[in-house]
Amino acid sequence: MSIIGSIFEVVQRDVPRAFTRYKEQYGNLVLFRGLRKNVLVLNSLQVINDLFDKRAPNYSHRPDSVFGGELIEYKHTSIFLPYGKEWRAHRKIMYSAPSP
């Protein structure tokens, strides 16, 4: 499928119906690539649960920040920590603090 044809088809038609057609034709995962962007369409609750519940550590981190993390050495602060045990500990402390 060409990316230009796919983009115009989704824009011109009802998007949920177009994605349902793609599910029938290509399966539960449909990846659109183009214009330097990737869009992954998940067409199944089971696939969504598998990706986001069972594999959350793979997808729940922030991108590395060269400026904040490396240059000004804030990589161990809560906002620059990758998802993991240390990040969860920071979050637990922040949520236990009383709100102003």
UniProtKB/TrEMBL annotation:
Topology versus the membrane: Single-pass membrane protein
Subcellular location: Membrane
Coiled coil regions in record: none
Superkingdom field: Eukaryota
GO cellular component: membrane
Presence of the UniProt keyword Oxidoreductase in the record: yes
Gene3D superfamilies in the cross-refs: Cytochrome P450
GO MF entries: heme binding; iron ion binding; monooxygenase activity; oxidoreductase activity, acting on paired donors, with incorporation or reduction of molecular oxygen
Record key words, sorted: Heme, Iron, Membrane, Metal-binding, Monooxygenase, Oxidoreductase, Transmembrane, Transmembrane helix
Cofactor: heme
Homology family: Belongs to the cytochrome P450 family.
PANTHER family to which the protein is assigned, alphabetical: P450, PUTATIVE (EUROFUNG)-RELATED, P450, PUTATIVE (EUROFUNG)-RELATED-RELATED
Protein name (record): Cytochrome P450
Species whose genome carries this gene: Obba rivulosa
UniProt lineage: Eukaryota, Fungi, Dikarya, Basidiomycota, Agaricomycotina
